[in-house]
């Protein structure tokens, strides 16, 4: 039967014959009535289950999506997360405050300085420690570099998921350069454990300042090339425009924050609403999209990288003189020269390292603008050396719930692109 | 600019007996609400013309095994984006009756937040469409964040806590 159709088609390419042939093919489906599921999506065939399995090259991390598909269109999806759940909240109940910084590194590991600084600020709020301006500016520089690094990953890999490897290849070199700046500052590349409660562990060395200036000089050119590759690229735009849109009301109902919410049109940025660490001293714009689709998320993240560069430039130009740590000897390790000579410094050093310092009783919630949105730390202290309860408000976890709604009725390739553009990072999803 | 006192007054006027313990640690208005009035309270805050507290930041829970009758505390962090105002609502539950009404009809984002709280603490959210574990394995039969479960395996011989200052 199929051979006859193919043979006929190849010999007689007339419209009438083609019409007859396509009618014959439709006979197979004519007896099946059209079905509607409860949301009104009409489908004809039985649904296929496709496992976008936990380990998949296109998912950024380990989380599973079981898609119910009607042919090529996704009808619904069921998510399983928790493959990288490491019980941070339970561990944090048994660790002194400065040891929890290493846990926060590993949440959104693409921009770990932001997590670290957010945690330090939470503890400083609890302890009532005032940070000098220089330390605050250095923190801002590091946080904005981390934001640039996070957006480089998200946008570069969004390009890769649509098939464009070149953009990723060229812009990822900049992330290597940011790693070099981290190395100057704290010694590590990815899980930085940067800063201390009470300031920064070391001042910006001359090498670090030189590298940051070099970064500010070379990154705009690369970012402009990246934008030229993608922003008005016909193929890319066909893949991402009007894909995975979400309205501002639904986004707010789901608890979206960060670039995903700003792409939907709501200009909520924690740096502006509840400024911390001297963000009110800097002048920057908040890019906002319109329809909340993948293209808007991509553009918002690109524009945020430009704004981060602005902030870093302003911070570097106006870097105030002063100490890089607060005068809080019971929380910040005294300098080693003092420890060798001074009795008090020795005692403080011992108490801090052995974790004998008790925190005041209280509960504090502090939020910072992470790479993905409002990263909140809810810390309850009962007067001991460890928190009584620490809860991380992880933006990825909260907005990933909206994923089934966003990819309803779209194809599998759209689903992959939506997941990339939402910047779901497994470490922050599960914590 | 809303102040903590104004908002507290508005809430007390509407809900009088069901809310108590108003405090503002670190300038964040915190109060305790009764479980029965919780849904009405949050809808009131969401629909109020001036307050417009329409953003759910987080839901979590705390376990206080030492206070009898108030072992569990479910904490809701809410945020008014229009007024830049945050508040925290606490609902205390007793050990025998760890049930709280769900607020999914008000905030779609409460779905996974409540599932996480159920997974880690065992707090049951009445009316939740799909209350099952989210971060842990389905087969796990205890709720790990409760204080009676230790962090590490007690039978280990090689790590003696006292020597490590724990």
* Helical fraction of chain B: 10-25%
Total DSSP helices of chain B: 3
Report the total helices of chain A.
19
What is the radius of gyration of chain B?
18 Å
Q: Care to count the β-strands of chain B?
A: 7
Query: What is the CATH H-level superfamily of chain B?
Result: NADH:ubiquinone oxidoreductase Nqo5 subunit
Structural class of chain B: alpha/beta
CATH superfamily of the largest domain in chain A: Cytochrome-c3 Hydrogenase, chain B
DSSP, total strands of chain A = 8
CATH level-two architecture of the largest domain in chain A? Orthogonal Bundle
Oligomeric form of this entry? Answer: heterodimer
Strand order of the largest sheet of chain B: 1-2-5-4-3
The top level CATH class name of the largest domain in chain A: Mainly Alpha
User: Which whole number gives the mean pLDDT of chain A?
Assistant: 88
Q: Could you describe the 3D structure shown?
A:
The complex is a heterodimer of chains A (431) and B (166). Chain A is mainly alpha-helical and 431 residues long. Chain A has a three-stranded antiparallel sheet with strand order 3-4-5. In chain A, strands 6-7-8 form a three-stranded antiparallel sheet. A two-stranded antiparallel sheet of chain A has the order 1-2. Chain A folds into two domains: 1-31, no CATH class; 88-430, Cytochrome-c3 Hydrogenase, chain B. Chain A has helices spanning 2-11, 15-30, 88-92, 101-105, 112-127, 133-161, 165-186, 206-230, 234-240, 248-254, 259-263, 270-273, 294-317, 336-341, 343-353, 395-399, 403-406, 412-421, 426-430; strands at 35-36, 42-43, 48-52, 64-70, 73-80, 362-369, 374-381, 389-393. Mean pLDDT of chain A is 88; it is low at 14-32. In chain B, strand 1 (19-23) and strand 2 form a beta hairpin. Chain B is α/β, with parallel strands linked by helices and 166 residues long. In chain B, the strands form two sheets. A five-stranded mixed sheet of chain B has the order 1-2-5-4-3. The termini of chain B are far apart. Chain B has one domain (4-164): NADH:ubiquinone oxidoreductase Nqo5 subunit (Beta Polymerase, domain 2), CATH 3.30.460. Chain B is 20% helix and 26% strand. Chain B is built from three helices and seven strands. The chains are: A mainly alpha (431), B alpha/beta (166). At the A-B interface, helix 3, helix 10, strand 6, strand 7 and strand 8 of A face strand 3 and helix 3 of B.
């Amino acid at each position: 039967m199929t051979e006859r159709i193919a043979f006929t088609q190849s010999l007689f390419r007339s419209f009438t014959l083609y019409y007859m042939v396509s009618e014959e093919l439709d006979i197979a489906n004519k007896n099946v009535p059209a079905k509607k599921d409860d949301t009104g999506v009409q489908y004809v065939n039985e649904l296929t289950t496709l496992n976008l399995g936990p380990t998949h090259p296109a998912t950024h991390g380990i989380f599973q999506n079981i898609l119910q598909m009607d042919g090529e269109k996704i009808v619904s999806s069921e998510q399983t997360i928790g493959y990288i759940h490491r019980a941070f909240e339970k561990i944090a109940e048994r660790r002194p405050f400065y040891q929890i910084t290493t846990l926060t590194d590993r949440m959104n590991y693409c921009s770990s300085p932001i997590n670290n600084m957010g945690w330090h600020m939470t503890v400083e709020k609890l302890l009532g420690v005032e940070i000098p301006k220089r330390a605050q500016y250095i923190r801002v520089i590091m946080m904005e570099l981390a934001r640039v690094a996070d957006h480089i990953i998200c946008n570069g890999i969004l390009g890769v998921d649509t098939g464009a490897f070149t953009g990723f290849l060229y812009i990822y070199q900049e992330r290597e350069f940011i790693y070099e700046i981290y190395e100057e500052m704290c010694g590590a590349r990815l899980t930085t454990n940067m800063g201390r409660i009470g300031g920064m562990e070391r001042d910006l060395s001359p090498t670090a300042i030189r590298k940051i200036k070099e970064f500010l000089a070379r990154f705009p050119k690369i970012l402009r090339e990246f934008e030229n590759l993608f922003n008005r690229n016909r193929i890319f735009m066909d893949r991402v425009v009007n894909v995975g849109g979400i309205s501002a009301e639904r986004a707010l109902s789901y608890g979206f924050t960060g670039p995903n919410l700003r792409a939907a049109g709501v200009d909520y940025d924690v740096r502006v609403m509840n400024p911390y660490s001297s963000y009110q001293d800097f002048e920057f714009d908040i890019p906002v999209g319109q329809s909340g689709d993948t293209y808007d998320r991509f553009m918002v993240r690109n524009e945020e990288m430009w704004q981060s560069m602005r902030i870093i430039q302003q911070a570097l130009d106006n870097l105030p003189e002063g100490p890089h740590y607060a005068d809080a000897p019971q929380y910040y390790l005294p300098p080693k020269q003092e420890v060798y000579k001074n009795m008090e410094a020795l005692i403080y050093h011992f108490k801090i390292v052995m974790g004998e310092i008790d925190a005041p009783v209280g509960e504090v919630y502090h939020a910072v603008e992470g790479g993905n949105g409002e990263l909140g730390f809810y810390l309850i202290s009962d007067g001991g050396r460890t928190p009584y309860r620490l809860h991380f408000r992880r933006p990825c976890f909260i907005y990933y719930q909206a994923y089934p709604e966003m990819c309803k009725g779209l194809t599998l390739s759209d689903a992959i692109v939506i997941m990339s553009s939402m910047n779901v990072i497994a470490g922050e999803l599960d914590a | 600019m809303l102040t903590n006192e104004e908002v507290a007054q508005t809430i007390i006027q509407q809900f009088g007996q069901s809310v108590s313990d108003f405090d503002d640690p670190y300038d964040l208005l915190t109060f305790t609400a009764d479980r029965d009035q919780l849904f009405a309270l949050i809808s009131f805050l969401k629909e109020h013309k001036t307050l417009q507290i329409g953003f759910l930041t987080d839901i979590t829970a705390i376990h206080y095994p030492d206070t009898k009758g108030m072992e569990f505390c479910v904490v809701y962090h809410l945020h008014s984006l229009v007024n830049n105002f945050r508040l925290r609502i606490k609902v205390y539950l007793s050990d025998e009756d760890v049930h709280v009404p769900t607020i999914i009809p008000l905030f779609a984002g409460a779905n996974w937040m409540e599932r996480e709280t159920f997974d880690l603490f065992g707090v049951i959210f009445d009316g939740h469409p799909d209350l099952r574990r989210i971060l842990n394995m389905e087969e796990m039969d205890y709720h790990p964040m409760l204080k009676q479960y230790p962090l590490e395996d007690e039978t280990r011989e090689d790590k003696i806590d006292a020597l490590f200052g724990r």
